[in-house]
UniProtKB/TrEMBL annotation:
Residues 86-102 have a biased composition (Pro residues). It holds the Pfam family FeS_assembly_P. Belongs to the Mrp/NBP35 ATP-binding proteins family. It comes from Methylorubrum populi. This is Iron-sulfur cluster carrier protein.
């Protein structure tokens, strides 16, 4: 049975957001409703961060009303904030925040000590492989580590960890994370068919990331590593708004074209007051599998120099080797399957520096302040 937006809006019109009986569609808080070919319905509710607790029952009721419609296979509803602190609701006249207004704060993830975003300004720089092996490098230090694949358009974690199948649903709608090599993992790739094209607009991406953060039984973690999608758009802002990031790691190749986009990534995280924990130069040199000679096919040292120029930590260089490529494609990441090898040693050393920067950067730091221009 085909579901229409009118059907969804009719169901949502029975949900009120205040004592005056204002309906959700009439409140100006409802995002555009999206229905995919599988009759999955997605929408978000615009709130101020201070309203999160009050609007959570509204979100649950809205989700339930739509899920009760005949033919609906699933509902992805989330609370989202796209405005600066103390900004007026849609349609209201803007006003300046009062003096001494507190910074915007995301809601902490229960049981998770630190959340680290691994990001890049562009695709193709090996960000996902780096995030996976960094998570394993942190785990090798005896830390409890989770890996969240927030790259909605190109989820790689299932392939990198050799995982398949769907996560188990626990009490309510909470998902149990998948596990591999000592990591807890969650990805949109576990929830869709491998060849599905994620043709999603911003609100859908925001909803998916928020639910994978909030509706997963992560348990007690020292670090949750988040593999971000490339770029500086909705996903990054959603992460900064949904929960206080402890910091971000920027991955880049040495070439100038990649460094231009890496600068944008650093600038974006600085604008939302997320500390830069370090820059990593990936594919720093190509190691010939036959003779062992190193070739700087993408240049060399560009990310290090850029980190120095931007006055952010430089975490290290990762070579381009057949071993890293082969183990990644096989779902057997090199840090887990060859922990004493030279490639694993590089990742472990970078993870050790990252942990040092993370614990130092997070001490006494206020929750991030969001500034959207």
């Amino acid at each position: 049975m085909a579901i229409t937006r009118d059907d969804v809006l009719k169901a949502l019109s029975t949900v009120t957001v205040d004592r005056g009986g204002t309906t959700l569609p009439g409140s100006g808080r409802l995002s555009p409703v999206v229905i995919d070919p599988g009759n999955r319905v997605m929408f978000s509710i615009l709130i101020d961060p201070s309203e999160a607790e009050r609007f959570e029952p509204v979100r649950r009721e809205a989700e339930g009303r739509v899920l009760a419609l005949p033919g609906v296979s699933s509902v992805l509803a989330s609370l989202t904030s796209e405005r600066a602190p103390n900004a007026p609701p849609p349609g209201a006249a803007p006003r300046a925040p009062g003096p001494g207004a507190p910074p915007r704060q995301g809601n902490a993830l229960p049981g998770v000590r630190h959340i680290v975003a691994v990001a890049s300004g562009k695709g193709g720089v090996g960000k996902s492989t780096t995030a996976c092996n960094l998570a394993l490098g942190l785990s090798a230090q005896g830390l409890r580590v989770g890996l969240l694949d927030a790259d909605i358009y190109g989820p790689s974690v299932p392939k990198l960890l050799g995982l398949s199948g769907k996560p188990r649903v626990l009490e309510g709608k909470t998902l149990e994370p998948m596990q591999a090599y000592g990591l807890k993992a969650m990805s949109i790739g576990f929830l869709i068919e491998p060849e599905s094209a994620m043709i999603w607009r911003g609100p859908m991406v925001q909803s998916a990331i928020t639910q994978m953060l909030r509706d997963v039984a992560w348990g007690e973690l020292d670090v949750l590593v988040v593999d971000m999608p490339p770029g500086t758009g909705d996903a990054q802002l959603t992460m900064a708004q949904a929960t206080p990031l402890s910091g971000a790691v920027i991955v880049s190749t040495p070439q100038d074209l990649a460094l231009i986009d890496a600068r944008r990534g650093v600038t974006m995280f600085r604008k939302v007051s997320v500390p830069i924990l370090g820059v990593i130069e990936n594919m720093a040199t190509f190691i010939c599998p036959n003779c062992g000679a190193a070739s700087a096919i993408f240049g060399h040292g560009g990310a290090r120099h850029e980190a120095e120029r931007l006055e952010v930590p430089f975490l290290g260089e990762i070579p381009l080797t057949m071993a890293i490529r082969e183990t990644s494609d096989a779902g057997r990441p090199v840090v887990a399957t060859d922990p004493d090898g030279p490639q694993a040693k590089v990742y472990r050393e970078i993870a050790q520096k990252l942990w040092g920067n993370l614990t130092g950067a997070s001490a006494g730091r206020a929750a991030p302040r969001i500034v959207i221009e």
